[in-house]
Structures are given as C-alpha cells and as structure tokens.
Amino acid sequence: MTWAPERRTPLEVLRALDCGPRGLLESEADDRLARFGENVLPTRRPPSWAARCVRSLRDPFTAVLASLAVVSALVAAWGTAAVIAVLVAVSCALRACGEYRADRSAAGLRDLVATTATVVRRASPDAPPAPREIPVDQVVPGDVVRLGPGDLVPADLRLLRATGLTMHQAMLTGESAPVPKSPADEPPPGASGFDRPELCYQGSSVASGSGTGVVVATGADTRFAAAYGAGPGSGRFRRGPGRRGLFGARGPETPTVRTAAADAHRATAFDRSVYGISWILIRFMLLTPPLVLMANAALRGRGLETLPFAVAVAVGLTPEMLPVIVTTALARGATALSRTHGVIVKRLPALHDLGAVDVVCVDKTGTLTQDRPVLDRALDASGADDPDVLHWAAVNSLWTLQLAEVPTADALDEALLDAAEQRLPGGLDALEYDPVAALPFDPVRRLSTAVVRTPGRIGGHTLVVKGAVEDVLERCALGPGEHARVTALALACARDGLRVLAVARAERPARTRAYTTADERGLTFTGLVALRDATAETAAAALTALARSGVAVKVLTGDHPGTAARACRDLGLEPGEVVTAERADALADAELAALAARTTVFARCTPEHKARIVRVLRAHGHVTGFLGDGVNDLPALRASDVGICPRDAVDVAREAADVVLAAKDLTSLDRAIEEGRRCGGTIAGYLRITLSSNFGNVIAMLTAGLMLPFLPMLPAQVLVQNLCFDAAQLAFAYDRQDPAALRRPLRLLPREVLRFVTGFGLLNAAADLATFAVLAWAVHSDTAAGGQASFHAGWFTENLLTQALVMLLLRAARPGAGAPRGPVPLAAATLAAAGLLLPLTPAGPALGMAPLPAVYYAGLAVVLALYAAGLWWMSGKVRRPGAGA
C-alpha cells in the first residue's frame, strides 16, 4: 500500500505510524531502529577496497600512466608495460591505504560533531513524555521531534504544531528565501512537493520560529535522498527488512530539484594550485611521445622501435606519487589537529587551503564577542561616573523581572544585575526594597518601570524608570539646555559603540490603586548606563596570532557600525573606516574589492552582503576563510575557500563548514593555519624537487637520444630509476618543515612553480650532459654492447645521485638553513646507495648495465660537487615557490 499524505490529517498520520503526540516508548524506538535501520544516507557507507583502487585510476596522472602502459603493451614492449603497471599498482594501493586511513579518521571526527535532534520519548507507558537529545542517525519513523532556530531537520516530518516557523530549503530547491511552514489538515490548492506547508524535509533548516512534528520517513526513504539520486530504486543502498516511509515508493510526485550539491563546487586554492600544475604537466606528457618519435625519425631514421623509449620519457616527467603524497600529508595533518587542538577537518583539501589563507572574514557576534552585553560605565547628567545611577538601574531590572514575571530575562537586565553584584557595596543585597508594582518593557513605549517603597519615608513610593534615551527624556522635567546636553552625551556614547539606556525616578505618595503608564510623567533624570558587547576570552590573542602569521582579518557583521568598531578596538584591532552595507551596494565588484583590501569592518551586513564580500575578495586573488556560527553565516561559509565554525555553532553552520573548531578557543584557528601551511609546504616541496629533477632528466634524455647512435638509457632502466625515486619521495609525506616557512601564507602558483622548475631543471640537465662527457672519457665512447651497458650504468648512477642531492638541498628556501631533519635525509641516502650499488649487483646485467671503471667515479665526484654548488647558489637567487603571498 502506498501512503497518500495529502489525504491524511495529522491524527490519521499518527495512527498510521502507530504513535502519538506524547512520543514513542524507548523500547518501541529500539525495535523500529532495528527494523528500519539507521537514519543515514546510503552514500555515507564506506567504499570497498576494490572500489577505492578503481577510484584511484581517476586521478589524472594515474590515468595517463595506465594509458601509457596500454600503448606499450600494444607495441609488444612488455618490459616497459610491466614496470609502468607496477607503478600504477603501487600508486593505487598507497592512495587507497591513505584514503582508508583518512576516512577512518574522518569518521571518528564526525562523531565529535554528529548532529543531534530533540525527540520526545517515554521510558514506560505511564511515564511522562520527556525531551532528550539523540544522534540524528538514531531517529526513527514515529518519533516526535522538536525544532528551534538553527536546527537541521533530521528526517522528513509532518508538522503537529508550529509557531512562526520558517525553513531554509536552499539545499533542496536552490531557493534562498525562507519558506513558511504550518500544520494543516489539507495542503492549500496548488501546493506540491517542497511547497507543502505541513511537511518539513530532511536537509532543510529552521530559519525562525519553532515547531513539533512526527517523523514520517528516514534514511534512504526521505525526499533528500531521492533528490540526490540515492532513494529507493537507485541501486545504491541496501534496504532493511520492512523499510518503508510514509511517502512509500518514490514516483512521479518527486520533484526535480536543483540541489546544492549539484552546484556548490567552487574552485578552491587547492584546485587552482595543485590541479592547475597537474594539468599543465599532463599536456607536456601527452606531447612528449610524438615529439620524441618525430625527432628520432627525422634525425636518426628510427621508427616505432623508439616508442618504448618515448613512453618511458613521458613517464619520467610524471610525479606519480603526487596523489599519495597529498592524501597522506593532509590526512596526517588533520589527525594531528584533532588530537592536539580539537580542530576537525571535514574536507581534507581544506587543510591545504587553510595554509594558503591570507584573509579571514569573521562574524562579530559569537565569534569575536560573546552573545551578551556588559556594563561599560554609569554616568550622571554631567557625564561623570556615578555608581548611584547603576544602583537605580539595577533596582529597576531586579524588580521588573521579579514582579512582572517575564518569561525570559532580558540580556541588558542581566548585565546590570551582574555589574551591581560586582561593583556596588553590598552587591545585590543593596537592591532589597519593598516592591510595590512593575510595568514591564514593551516595544511601543520602549521603557520599563518598577515601583518600590521609598526607603526612610513612610507613605511614599519611588518610581524607577529605565529605557530608550529619547523616550525617558520626554517624560522628564528638563530644561532645553539640559535636555540637549544629555542627548549629546548619549550620542557620544553611541558613537563610541555603546548601547545607552536612560534612568529616571519620581517620588509619589503611596496609594492602593494600580499604577499605569500614565504615571510615567514628571520624572527626575538620574543618569545614563552604557553597555558594550562582552568580548570572547581568546579573541584578542587569536587576532594577534593571525596578524603575526600574515593573515588579514575582516569583520562582517549585521550590527551597528559604532558597536562593531568598539568591539574591534576592545580587542586591539584597529577598525579604521567602517563601511556599511548600503555603501557596498552602490559599488561594482572591482570597486568593492579595492575597498575591502583596505577596510577592516563592514557593518549592517545581511547574509548576502557577507557572501558577496567574500566572493569579490576571492575573485581578486585572495584566499579567504570565513569564520561564523549562525544561520545567517551560511552563504558566506559556502562562498569562501574555507568555511570555519566553532563546535557550538548552529547545526547548519557545522554541516556547511569545512573546518570545525572544537571550542570557541579561536587561537586554535592559528594552529590550524600553521598545520595547513605545514601540509602545503610538504606538497610544494615534493612538487618543486620532483619536477625540477624530472624536467632536467627529460631534457638530457631527449638531447642524448638525438646525439648518440644508441638510446641513452633503455626503457626498463628509465622506469626502474623512476620507481626508486618514487619510493624515496614517500618520505616527503612525513617531512618536517622549517618553522620559518610557516610564518607567511602559502601560495602555490603554477606559473611560479614552473619558473622554479625550469631554472633548476636546466641546471640538472647541464649536470647530466657533463656526465656524458665524463662517460665519453671514461669508457671511450664505445658503441659496442659493453660500452653501451657502461654508459647506461653511468648515467643511471648519476641520475639517482643528483636526485638525492636535490632532495637534500632544495627542501628549504636556502640550503643549509637548518640541520637535516626527519625521514628525507635517510631516504636520500638510501636512494644514493641504490644508484651506486645496483649496477654492481646481479640485477645490473639483467637491466642491461655493466660495472664502471674507477676513473668514472672520480669524474662523477667533480660533476656532483659543481652541481651541488650550483644548487646552493641558485636557491639563494630564485624565489621559493609556495612561500609567498
């Protein structure tokens, strides 16, 4: 039977689900969890090992290598094909292992930020219903769920009650405007799909209001799963026994939606750098074989017999270990951050992007400031500090809260009472008057009144009034001059970013009839209380650390310009000129980007303004992170290179963020940026060392192939050499960075990297060509089989020794900047040993190499010494790629 929710009232839905508004019994919930399964999307299931290996073939470099292996096999170059196949298999296996470890770590990290839902359940049939927080994956059909602002909808719900409820459904429909929701027995005419007001869908979030609903579908049966192609019938999940939601099988009623997943991809710093370099190299690789073939055919009359050598040259240009190095370095960095600083990296490439961040945009409230005010000063009419003003303001707050029975204490009243406890002699005991009456605050008259018995005067009452300055002053008996002076004082406080309240009193004869707002007249002005936002405890230290790391901070807030500027000054961040959203609206993107480069604070920002500022900063060359914790921060979190939020952010912000700080200790953000720079430096170091060495070897191979009557190195020798170098390069994933390299934003620019690679590659090619001269002298340029074998062995040895030198001397911006540390020196020594010993072992003749005369090693030592000196000199002249902004 297929459920027809449009024909059922809420009561019929509850009966169909065998539940009630008082919630499920705990035992019933456990039975349903076993029957329906966990409330998770099927796509969250980890892939198998075979699937991981196949997925590794989608990496551009691995795919090109596999294609070259196929080409080699087609021309019967079985040795070349076999060695390339080994390279592909090793790369896929290592990457699959790295992804498995990363997924396992990420799964553990997700448990720390697992979204929860508030459900109503009962321990026994006679027990009263009690709300409790449970993980979202434990929600079952029939659960009664309560929703509040910022909550994610944990499953598909039918509303039972709602008050001012609106939902964000952008993840499902692409529409940014909140949609009103309300319980209804029947949907309005024309309402269908996601427009149904009585239905709330998994993947949406509460924009405002509150509501209670019953779960009608979970997991793969939700509309969210169906919209993403993971619903019933997709073949991408396993159905549990009896699994069925209220909506039943998905049919034509499922709307076609533009999901956020379909269009949320953005080219981040990782995409622009690592992938940008990758595709440039792939173009060179694809051009190399035909160029080698054409050159040999034209100059040496060789034909397809040169194809294995051409393929080997293309393989020699490939940084095969790049996917493995990237995955391993990022996974290790993410794990270290979670273990030592409580920072959770949900998207591994975001760690690289963190290292490249040079601008962090932050929301003020909840990030730089706490969501509560504190008293700054209490002033009399002349502007002098007066504790008596605080005394009477606190009397108003105390007895308004006590007598008016306000359901929720106002934050300003709490701040005044806290200040009275700390600053007044006797604390709150000094406020103990005999209360008479209270008139609570309302938004029309914008003030509140407390009436107490006048101390020391029998038969007298004192009215204490507190509220908006202009509304209190118009009820006071002030002359024009005094009124103007008090108004100017209040405006000066407001310009300083303070919230200002006026306090006034009046003495009245005691009476028995009730007090009304008409009694709030003829008051005597007492003074002003000015309050400011309480700053976050660690925000000042975090801002100082970010500035020291070369990261600019931009504050994007919806608050008043003065309030935002005051908070920045309290934290030691000079606000400069504060730009309002209205001014930003009048500027084109290029003008806004230029303004944002020199502006610290943007005030009166809507969520769209925040997202636009982040986008224009990115479009004009900045790598941006956005730190926010509220629903209104979602567009900016998604627009930035790296979305960051604290762990106690609202659910939807945590889901949208790439990085989650486990607490509002913002100093951990600086630690995360440092770890990102460390990982990015590892990747950049691998690229510059590998590519410069590979590029030089390829140039030398092409040159020698045209100069010599025989191939300068056999294809199998090229590939074995490449395999040895690849094995040594794995040490880069565990390398330790020089602390000096972590002081500036890391920027891996393809053009800069290629310029670096070209310079050092030509130096490497010069060393190779000098080795040819040494070989010609040592083996007398014998073109016989023995002479060719010696030539091959000599160049093989020199290649591995120069690559070992490159690994050691190009690790830092300047060789010798620090003592060798970590696994790279050991890997370089092992690589050098392989180059010296392999031709002398039984494997040498099998690969077509012969022992070399001792005189060759003397000449080689001279070449290597000159090459090391050249590396030393050039590294001081060439700007290190990836180290600058």
Tell me what the structure shows.
The protein is an alpha/beta fold and 885 residues long. Among the domains are: 5-39 and 139-263, Calcium-transporting ATPase, cytoplasmic transduction domain A; 343-368 and 537-662, 3-Layer(aba) Sandwich (Rossmann fold), CATH 3.40.50.1000; 378-532, Calcium-transporting ATPase, cytoplasmic domain N (3-Layer(aba) Sandwich). It has 30 helices and 22 strands. The strands form 3 sheets. Strands 1, 2, 3, 4, 5, 6, 7 and 8 form an 8-stranded mixed sheet that branches. The protein has an 8-stranded mixed sheet with strand order 9-22-21-20-10-17-19-18, sandwiched between helices. A 6-stranded antiparallel sheet has the order 11-16-15-14-13-12. Helix 4 runs antiparallel to helix 5 (78-112) and helix 24 runs parallel beside helix 26. The two termini are 63 Å apart. Residues 1-5, 229-265, 781-785, 812-818 and 879-885 have low confidence and may be disordered.
